Amino acid sequence: MTASAPIFASPPLSRRRLLAAGAGLGLGLQMWGSSALAAPQRRKFVLVILRGAADGLSITPPVGDGAYAALRRELAITDAALPLDGDFGLHPELKIVHRLIGAGQGRFAPAVAMPAAGRSHFEAQDRLEAAAGDDVSSGWLNRAMASLGRGAPVEGLSVGPVAPLVLRGQVATSSWSPGRAVETAARLPMLVQDLYADDPLLGPALARGLKTEVLAQANLARLAADTADTPEASNAARLSRTLQGDSPDAAGRLGAAVAGFMGEETGADTVAISLDGFDTHANQAGALTRRLAYVDALVGGLEAGLGGSWRDTMVLVVTEFGRTARINGTLGTDHGTASTALVLGGGLKPGGIIGDWPGLHEARLFENRDLTPTTDLRSLFKGVLADHMGVDRRALDTTIFPDSAAAAPILGLV
Amino acid sequence: MALPDRDLQAAIAATRFGLGARPDEIAAAQGDPQGFLLAQTRRKAASGQIRALPLERAEALQNFRQAQAAFLKANRQQDRKARDLQPEVNAARTVLRDQIAADVLERAARGATTDAGFAERWALFWANHFSVGAGNFVRTATIGPYEAAAIRPHVFGRFADLLAAAETHPAMLLYLDQNGSVGPDSPLAQRMARGKAAQRQVGLNENLAREILELHTVGVNGGYTQADVTEFARALTGLTFRGFNAPAEEVGETYFRQIAHQPGPRSVMGVVYEVEGEAQALAILKDLAARPQTAQFISAKIARHFVADDPPPALVARLEAAWRDTDGALDQVAAALITAPEAWAPEPAKFKTPYEFMISSWRAVGDAPRRPADLTMLTAMGHRPFYAPSPEGWPDEAAAWATPDGVIKRLVWTQDYAPRAIGAADPSNIAVEALGARLSPATATAVARAESRGEGLALLLMSPEFQRR
Q1: Domain end: B122, B155, B188, which one?
Q2: What is the pLDDT of residue B45?
């Protein structure tokens, strides 16, 4: 255990405060002192990581590129694509994303990559999330939160039982996943907290987990009340279980539940969600249809759940690298280089595609096999952090994305 | 580096090297803690060839495939018979589902009850190194047999044999899409190109080749290029297994399909392989097993799993030396780990994964999972057995598992399990049996002061020292 003391460690949750939190949802939820309440407008950011190298050429099929259909053969999405501008379409399952783009609340970057991503999932995911040298074990989103400084009303939350690297680091963050609830007001959690009093790893983890649990239970109870004819306490537990699973329905509810966390006055502003299942080496079409339907419903759930806060929210959907331009021998694609990033949010300024389109002509392919990247993914991250979250430009070039001064932020998105 | 006293060594042997102490286990290790572990590396694996898929499994898979095919065919032809065929598909699926659940339960129960906890942890390490994750029914049904036939018999043998067994088992061939990979210039590809224009393209799939290099042998910094991946993938073409239409006693047997093999010599990492056919891929595997980068990459991974997320370099060097000196004799690598002073540091540096936490909880109580439902909490904890999220296998470091949500899920399970499991036992006795000299005064006091036996056990299981090893 090398967990260093978090620089913004919240005061340990005393038993009394925990009880108060469990009973009335008041005191115990305050994470940053009064400044959190004073902040007039809370900018929110959701990072969705598609693990396994999602195929950009299927997410935003370049229907206007003359080489596309021949490269993709059976996997080309042409007539079925949701129409955008003639150059690009959208995967048929991305209906909500399509509506958002049509309403000026969505854009995309069709050829992004991290520098030197390589074609290894695991190394590339580490690079995507650490965005620093190989010896760095914290994530850029955590470092960005650190740079915002004490008192900034930013709280990080990851969705899922395993912490993604992008949110790991010196700023303590929380995590949550749906499932059976813990009785936060029972004796055991308090006694265990006493046992963890001097434990630098488990003490903060449990304290944060309990706080989030209290929020979650209130949040789910409210959702249950909204969705049921006769609101009952047990609905929250039942609802929590319906958030699990791979169906678009579950994804929509999960998005709404996560939005509930973000809507709380002292809830999370910065959320990371990992989705796997994008490594489509064989029979790609069916697998992508299911996973992209999930992504689309998740976005819809977030948008609906955030309500008025949607205009203060940005959602970024990224992957570690793209897939080969040509299909392989098993109706799939192998590891490639550039892919698509989606940028969504109520406060987005309208605009066209982000970055250039390199084209799929054979001479333009990277190493004669992959879509060539035209945009450094860090430039996109930096633009969002600078414009939307107000992160300091110098910190972006040095501590958050070390040695990245050459990758200028893409400004003017919001 | 001096070893801790004998009492603490015995506790470390059972909890850090093993899967947690069962009652009396620490006492059994007390006389000679290192010898207690070394003896486990010498137990003979079951002799004789183990079938890639047991006959019963092969038959269940065939029944499912055939029922499904008949249903789909009738359905496509809009034959009313399709509805009558549905129950058969469901019945075949149920048989398979029950067998898969039995595999998972058997593995967890073995972990909970074995008196060779180190040997089991060692086997689980290798199963995770050569990770195969669940997918559709058919693949998931191969994972239990994979561990039994390809992993367990070789974990104290030569790494080269383990590597060859893992990469040629149908579970791996399905998981990493090898069975559909066809040499572009192979007779099969040429025949298909001559066929109807509508025939779909066949070709290479480089998934298995890449993951062997990146994850199973030399590691991502092992010095290979994209060209090496492609060449290796070409060499692997033809490597497949007898499909589900073969006679049941042949289903799942590894099989080299010569007509799908890319002809010609291959060059991988600077070595040219002139030998043709099946021998080509096997020769490359053998060379990869012998490369120093492989010893280096996996030695570090072993040290990370057993001792610390950031392991002492001296320990890694010892393992690497043992690997090199014995040509990858894994019993000798295990012995080097057991006898390394760095592995016996008094402070537990590893945070248990959810699977380790639940297995060690059952061991502490002298209990075992009895029904598939006893394992469902592992899914909520993000550690469902057989469902590793990627070919990289499960994460091994505290930063991944010691999350707020992860700790809460352990608390939820403990709150439910402890009162049911404790019976008439004294939790203070269980604490001593489970942790021995590792039990802290603070935890001993909290357990003794608990208001109920169940609460006492729950506090033990959630205590900082029980959560670690």
Answers
A1: B155
A2: 66
Minimum CA–CA partner of A137 in chain B? B399
Model confidence at A25, pLDDT cuts 50, 70, 90, reads very low
Domain ranges of chain A: 46-178+243-400, 179-242
The residue count of chain B comes to 469
**If you write DSSP's letter for every residue of A322-390 in order, what string do you get?**
-BBSS--TTSS--B-S-EEEEEE-TTPPP-S-SS-----SGGGSBTTTBPPP-EEHHHHHHHIIIIIT-
Determine the pLDDT at residue A27. 20
Count of C-beta atoms within a 10 Å radius of residue B60: 24
Would you say residue B329 lies in a domain? no
> How many structural domains is chain B composed of?
3
Same domain? For B196 and B257 the reply is yes
pLDDT of A235 reads: 66
B91 and B13 both lie in a single domain: no
In-domain check, residue B221? yes
List, for residues B222-231, the tens digit of each pLDDT value.
999 999 999 9
Average pLDDT, chain B: 94
Do residues B80 and B182 both lie within one domain? no
- Closest Cβ opposite residue A161 in set B391, B403, B446: B403
> Which amino acid, one-letter code, is at B96?
L
Residue of B nearest to A135 (CA): B310
Asked if B119 and B194 sit in the same domain, the reply is: no
Is residue A164 very low, low, confident or very high in pLDDT (cuts 50, 70, 90)? confident
Cβ–Cβ below 8 Å for A208 and B309? no
Instruction: Let me know whether B364 and B459 are in one domain.
Output: yes
pLDDT beyond 70 at B433 = yes
CA distance B262 to chain A (A): 13
Q: How far is B398 from chain A (nearest CA, A)?
A: 7
pLDDT attached to residue A181: 72
* Residues facing A342 on adjacent strands: A108, A317
- Cβ-based contacts of A320 with chain B (< 8 Å): none
Does the pLDDT at position B302 exceed 90? yes
In a domain, B346, yes or no: no
Nearest to B409 by CA among B448, B449, B467, B348: B467
Amino acid at B274: E
Is B42 within a domain? no
pLDDT tens-place string over residues A169-210: 888 888 888 776 777 777 899 999 999 999 999 999 999 888
| Interface with chain A: mutation pick from B383, B407, B443, highest number of A CBs within 10 Å | B407
Domain closes at, from B290, B319, B335: B290
Contact state of B214 with A120 under an 8 Å Cβ cutoff: yes
Are B281 and B189 in a shared domain?
yes
Tell me which chain B residues have a C-beta less than 8 angstroms from the C-beta of A327: 201
Domain residues for B361?
A: 1-32+351-469
| CB-based burial label for B194 (10 Å; 0-12, 13-18, 19+) | exposed
Interface with chain B: mutation pick from A170, A190, A192, A331, highest number of B CBs within 10 Å:
A192
Output phi, psi for A324, to 5 deg.
Answer: -60, 145
**Which residues of B fall within a CB distance of 8 Å from A165?**
399
Between B319 and B249, the more confident residue is B319
Indicate whether B86 and B131 sit together in one domain.
yes
Q: What is the CATH code of the structural domain delimited by A46-178+243-400?
A: 3.40.720
3-class DSSP state of A50? strand
